[in-house]
TrEMBL record:
Leader sequence segment: none
Ranges for domain Glycosyl hydrolase 94 catalytic: 309-738
Keywords recorded for this protein, A-Z: Glycosyltransferase, Transferase
An individual GO BP term: carbohydrate metabolic process
Superkingdom, taxonomy of origin: Archaea
Coiled-coil features, chain-numbered ranges: none
One Pfam family named in its UniProt record: Glyco_hydro_94
Record protein name field: Glycosyl transferase
Glycosyl hydrolase 94 supersandwich domain: residues covered: 11-272
This protein's record includes keyword Iron: no
A GO term for molecular function: glycosyltransferase activity
Protein species of origin: Halococcoides cellulosivorans
Length: 815
């Protein structure tokens, strides 16, 4: 069952049933001001930081779902009947409903009793506001007297404080009303730093700013007292729960329409500004902006600019393959999700509250891998920003706060895979751009002034951090955890029994080792060795970095191989994890995928054996699960991973983030059929017809899909903000379609299904455009017989980086 369909020409997903299994959302805004819009108009907005600059209140885990925050109501002034054109919050059945999620905007249309209402939500480029462009049309044969009510439920800035510190917050809410604009100025009396505003283009017939006056003392958002009565109360909030609501009365003849614009915006005063009147909002800062965007012509221009932005960004890589679902994901939705995920990491979605997580170090560095061809300058700056939260010993703060850029001291470091992601992301950036100057850029350590060092030294310290922290098998120590945050092998019982503590073991010393980090280290060091050949600013030579990689490879071959697959780790007592010796958790996907991407075991058949084991033991119809068998009871030797029921999250779900590592390995091995098969198993567009099972949006990737051990097998959770998006994009474009950047140019090395007769790709690379046509006359899965560039055959499979601003034709014949 599906709840809508793709409109590929419009680059929109069209939802035709408002009661989707979960709120299906979209994001508006791409820089400082960001909002989430659900298919029923819910969600919230913030400026820069989803915790400390939250504009709209949102209730997670609420029943009914996704109410409060934003709202629109249309009321028939004669009959008293009212509804929401977005279905929620009123939840009155509509005669017709449609939601179109587009790139940076959402349009929702709802018709009831011959009154059609359309609303488009978007953030004008470069502005710190969201516009709601509402059009109400009388489609009936008689004149209608109608009323339109808006609603914003303000959050009192710090979203954590907003839901916990009621003894203060119930006394601090303050607003100002001037004309058709409501100013939310809570805390402005004290700090006078920032305020929000909710403006309307029309002359209003009433307003409310106190939630209880609007809703009533015991009524909900589905039956507000103001809508029951048909008149705003002109309430002015003093403490309690401030809101913004406008009442606009409309008299429409048959066929007549009226457009009303609402603007929800944020303003932060200049630091050196002085105020003569404490508590009085400096409206002069925002009045010109309000006037500008209440004008439909300005909104038209802003919307056109938004459309041009996305057209330009997506044109950096476009494909035409025999598979329509691949095309729509690569050309539009996966690329779009990559951009959102780069902006927000894992901070704010319908599953991430924005209260406790900032921007993740490893998360953000992986997210960049998929957007380097679109946003090289932003990616460059993000790498340097992340280098600033690297610790002096080469480790890293696991997260940082967006508003301050400082590392999160509460979480700290100890995630021992973090350092290598800095190496991998930097190497990928240089391969895409050819810009080795980033290695000379200075960045502090731990956000501490006076500790500046070139990025090249940051990379060297990352290498030393892992190299100097190896355990009994010469494998890297896992620390608190590696990529799998829930595999905690250094967590010990407060009252350990004999099976935990013996005379020959000291439980205060961390000894657990990670085969995953070992594979990651080999992958990263070989990238660093190649990078060292491009520049002399790295502290060690290419040969020295390669020697590190070779020695770690030997350790993996010796201690990391279990006979048919790569082990996952060793615990504190040197007992293997992810081994046939274990009763549960015998084989894990992460170590097999990472060691495979590092090409460990390619020469002796181990890598292929590992992939065969993954296919036999981990692959399901819904994707590749993290491990099998799942853990059936809590085991403190392994930590949080065993706290989840079997089949969910880190305990045996399809953790989609890891699936592309297997796709990439299979593609590198030349197994195009397998690589593409795995791609389609978790491809959101390919799961659209089972939306009642999948439950999350069919246009973006989710973090997890319930595994075969779970009662809800196939159900996805944690959509949008996931490393799944970036890695799947890398897997399909760079390894299955096989067009990937390298230091000397674009490598063309497809690994595709044998029944494909070819495909086409247009890709921008270093100030040139490459129109690539791949032909597969012999029906092979991999292998390249010839490459022609502008009509001339070249040696090898690397198309030169022309950097000439021209378009070049590339013809590839597989065989």
């Amino acid at each position: 069952m599906s709840y809508g369909h793709f409109d590929d020409d419009a680059r929109e997903y069209v939802i035709t049933d408002p009661e989707t299994p979960r709120p299906w959302i979209n994001y508006i805004g791409r820089k400082d001001y960001v909002g989430m819009i659900s298919n029923t108009g819910g969600g919230y907005s913030f400026y820069q930081d989803p915790r400390y600059r939250r504009l709209i209140r949102y209730r997670y885990n609420n029943a009914p779902r996704n109410v409060g925050g934003r709202g629109l109501y249309v009321r028939d002034a004669e009959s008293g009947e009212y509804w929401s054109p977005t279905w929620q919050p009123a939840r009155v059945d509509l005669d017709d409903y449609e939601c179109r999620h587009g790139l940076g905007y959402t349009t929702i249309s709802g018709t009831k009793n011959s009154v059609a209402t359309d609303v488009t939500y978007f953030v004008p480029p470069g502005e710190d506001l969201e516009a709601w462009r509402v059009t109400v049309t009388n489609e009936g044969s008689e004149a209608r007297s109608l009323q339109l009510f808006s609603l914003v439920e303000f959050c009192l800035w710090d979203a954590m404080d907003d839901i916990s510190n009621y003894q203060r917050n119930y006394n601090t809410g303050e607003v100002e009303i001037e004309g058709s604009t409501i100013y939310q100025k809570t805390e402005y009396r004290e700090r006078r730093e920032h305020f929000a505003y909710f403006a309307c283009s029309a002359d209003i017939d009433g307003f409310d700013t106190q939630r209880d006056a609007f809703l009533g003392n015991y009524e909900g958002f589905d039956q507000p007292q103001v809508l029951e009565d048909g008149a705003a109360t002109d309430s002015v909030a003093h403490g309690w729960a401030p809101i913004g609501s406008h009442q606009i009365d409309l008299d429409l003849e048959p066929g007549e329409s009226e457009e009303i614009v609402f603007l929800l915006g944020f303003h932060e005063n200049p630091e050196d500004e002085k105020w003569a009147e404490p508590g009085v909002v400096n409206k002069e800062y925002v009045e010109p902006t309000i006037e500008e965007y209440c004008d439909p012509e300005s909104l038209d221009a802003a919307f056109d600019e938004l459309d041009e932005f996305w057209t330009d960004q997506l044109s950096a890589l476009q494909v035409e393959t025999p598979d329509p679902e691949t095309d729509r994901m690569v050309n539009t939705w996966n690329a779009y999700q990559n951009t959102v995920t780069m902006n927000l990491a894992r901070s704010a979605s319908m599953y991430e509250t924005g209260l406790t997580r900032g921007i993740g170090f490893r998360d953000s560095l992986q997210d960049q891998l998929a957007v380097l061809h679109q946003f090289p300058d932003r990616a460059r700056q993000r790498i340097l920003n992340l280098a600033k939260i690297q610790l002096k010993d080469g480790g890293a703060y696991h997260q940082y706060t967006p508003l301050t850029g400082e590392g999160n001291a509460e979480i700290g470091g100890g995630f021992n895979d973090d350092p290598m992601w800095l190496v991998m992301s930097t190497a990928a950036y240089v391969k895409e751009t050819g810009d080795t100057s980033i290695l000379d850029e200075e960045a502090v350590f731990e956000n501490e002034e006076g500790t500046e060092a070139p990025l090249a030294e940051h990379l060297q310290r990352a290498v030393e951090y892992v190299w100097e922290r190896r355990g009994p098998h010469d494998l890297p120590l896992i620390g608190h955890a590696d990529w799998n945050d829930c595999l905690n092998l250094n967590c010990f019982s407060d009252n350990p029994d004999e099976s935990f503590q013996t005379a020959e073991h000291d439980i205060d010393e961390e000894r657990a080792e990670s085969v995953f980090i070992a594979g990651q280290f080999v992958y990263a060091l070989e990238e660093l060795a190649a990078l060292a050949e491009q520049t002399d600013v790295l502290p060690e030579s290419s040969d020295e970095y390669q020697q590190y990689a070779d020695e770690m490879t030997a350790a993996v071959q010796d201690a990391g191989w279990d006979g048919s697959w790569f082990r996952r780790a060793y615990d504190h007592f040197s007992d293997p994890i992810g081994s046939s010796e274990n009763d549960e958790g015998q084989i894990f996907v992460e170590s097999n995928g990472m060691c495979g991407m590092a090409e460990i075991g390619f020469n002796d058949g181990k890598a292929q054996d590992a992939m065969d084991s993954v296919r036999e033991r981990l692959a399901t119809e819904h994707g590749i699960v993290l491990h099998q068998p799942a853990y059936t009871e809590y085991d403190e030797r392994y930590g949080e991973i065993t706290s989840y029921p079997p089949g969910y999250k880190e305990n045996g779900s399809v953790f989609c983030h890891t699936n592309p590592w297997i796709m990439i390995t299979e593609a590198k091995l030349g197994n195009g059929e397998r690589a593409f098969d795995y791609y389609k198993r978790i491809c959101p567009a390919a799961r659209e017809e089972i939306s009642e099972t999948h439950t999350t949006e069919p246009y973006v990737y989710a973090q997890t899909i319930a595994g075969p051990d779970a009662p809800t097998t196939g159900e996805a959770k944690n959509s949008w903000l996931t490393g799944t998006a970036a890695w799947n994009y890398v897997a399909i474009t760079q390894y299955i379609l096989g067009v990937r950047p390298d230091h000397d140019g674009l490598v063309v090395d497809p690994s595709i299904p044998a029944d494909w007769d070819g495909f086409e790709m247009e890709r921008e690379f270093r100030d040139a455009t490459y129109e690539i046509s791949v032909e597969n006359p012999d029906g092979v899965e991999s292998g390249v017989a010839s490459v022609e560039v502008d009509g001339e055959e070249i040696d090898g499979q690397t198309v030169p980086a022309f950097e000439d601003g021209e378009t070049h034709d590339v013809r590839v014949v597989m065989g």
